[in-house]
Every structure is written in structure tokens, then in C-alpha cells.
Amino acid sequence: MTAQIAYADVEVGTELPARTFPVDRERLIRYAGASGDFNPIHWNERFAKDVGLPDVIAHGMFTMAEAARVITDWTGDPGALVEYGVRFTKPVVVPDDDQGAAIEVAAKVAKKLDDEARTVQVDLTVSSAGAKVLGMSRAVVRLA
Amino acid sequence: MALDQSFVGRTYPPSRPYEVGREKIREFAEAIGDDNPVYTDAEAARALGHPEVIAPPTFVFSVTFREAFTVVQDPELGLDYARVVHGGQRFVHHRPVRAGDLLSTTSTIESIKSLAGNEVLDVRGEVRDAAGEPVVTVHTKLVARAVEAAEGE
């Protein structure tokens, strides 16, 4: 595994490049097909509203996958991502319009964990429409 | 009704193996909009020291989620599956999942807690390759939401 970021070059507080990921209904259909998760709350507005949601919502795992890209784009090698966990705290609501929704991801190095293994803890902040959608979102990354 | 604590520690046998295909990885990477060549180009993967194209870090959930949900659908556990939502997810990668892997998952109920009327289940999936070597440990938190009085259940 060959991360492009050296352990020696980061410190606690180092920010990873922030990203915004768009998500529309087509994206959710593609993700449903690729992941095998066909829960109708992710594509059927009538069903979503029947179960008390404001509208169709993104798969939590889709949001988790997008947030991970801030780390994998930073390291270059996705194999450098050793641990990754989140809580699904609020849904990403995806309206049926030209805009869809946006997932905003910021991340920073929170701890340097192990000088020998060259691992760091990265904390992520993931929000949509001004609300935090993932909680306790953190990763362990092995650097070069 | 609180769930039976004796289910904590119960292990469900390995699933039917799942063969990770190159084109399935490509489809997943395209679905999340990620064009990192390590997911689609074996040469690019080898340049980073991987023997084959690797899968995005959360890909393995599409392999394991059926197992985790099979556990909560165990009729003996008596959980109302219609109320179950995905509360949290964590992966510990022992190595990246890659094309050609034949993955089997053994699931264990790690804990059952009652929180404000919700039942919270932590299910651990150990994903191993054909040689029996660990590939990923998948921690899935499932929440069965409290039945509200208004629903009249």
C-alpha cells in the first residue's frame, strides 16, 4: 500500500481538502442497483412520505461512501483507509428537481496514533442542507 | 418488549461465498462517482502494490448487509423487522477487498440494548477469504424504533 501523504508531513489539525458531492434521484437509482439496496425510501416518494419521511432520502451507505472519498482522494491509495465508522444521525433529503441535494464533507487529522505504524485518526464533518447527517464519523488512515 | 439477552453472543454460520467481480467493483465505483483508477485498472492497482483492482472501502457492505439483516429476521429473536433502521456502520479492513476474492461472512450478535424504547443491536460480521484469512470486520448497528402509541400497534 502506497499512500501519497507522509506521516511526518501531517500534524494534529491538518485539514484534508473539503469536497461537496451532488446527489440527485438518478444517482440514488444507480446506487440502489450497484449496492443491491432497493429499499423504496430511496426511490419512491409516495412510499417515503407514507412512512413519515419528508421526501426520498439517500442511502446512509451512499453518504458514507461519498464522505470516504475525501480520505481516499487525499491518500491516493484507498487501501490506506484501515478503519472507518459513522452513525447515521439525520437523512439526506433528495428532492425530485434539477438540483437534488449536496453532501458537504470536511475532514482533519485529529490524532497521530502510532509513529511506527504511521497511522492517524481523521475526523469527518458531513452535512447536507445545513444539518449534520453523519455522527461520530472517523477513520484510521495509514500514511507513508 | 425487551429482547432476549440470551441472543448476545449467538453466531450465525458462514454465508454462501460471494465472488467479487471486476465489473461489479467498476459498477459500484461508477455509482458513487469515484473515478480512482485503482478500482478499474489492474495496472494502476499494481502500481500501488495491490495484486488486483480493489473495491471502494464501503463496497463490502453490499456483500454483508443481507447477513446482518438475516440475523435480525431470526424468528426466535422476535424483532419487528419493519421497524428496523440502519443506525451506524464501521469497517475494520485487514486488507482491501479485491477482484477475485471469494468472501464468506460469519455474523455474531454482539450486544442488545434498550434505549428510550428503541432496541439497539450490534452485529459483527467477520469476512474471510477462500483461505480463511480475515479480510474485513464489519460492525453494523441496527435500531428497531419504538412503537409509538399513535400507531396503535
TrEMBL record, chain A:
InterPro entries xref list: Fatty_acid_synthase, HotDog_dom_sf, MaoC-like_dom
Every MaoC-like domain range: 16-122
Pfam families, per the entry: MaoC_dehydratas (PF01575)
Listed GO MF terms: fatty acid synthase activity
GO cellular component, one term: fatty acid synthase complex
Record GO biological process: fatty acid biosynthetic process
Domain of life: Bacteria
SUPFAM superfamilies cross-referenced by the UniProt entry: Thioesterase/thiol ester dehydrase-isomerase
Family to which this protein belongs: Belongs to the enoyl-CoA hydratase/isomerase family.
Name of the protein: Acyl dehydratase
Species this protein is from: Streptomyces qinglanensis
TrEMBL record, chain B:
Name of protein: UPF0336 protein SAMN05421870_12025
One example of a Gene Ontology biological process annotation: fatty acid biosynthetic process
Entries under HAMAP family matching the protein: UPF0336 (MF_00799)
Record-linked Pfam families: FAS1_DH_region
Domain FAS1-like dehydratase: 6-137
UniProt similarity note: Belongs to the UPF0336 family.
SUPFAM superfamilies in the record: Thioesterase/thiol ester dehydrase-isomerase
Gene3D superfamilies according to UniProt: Hotdog Thioesterase
MF terms (GO), sorted A to Z: (3R)-hydroxyacyl-[acyl-carrier-protein] dehydratase activity
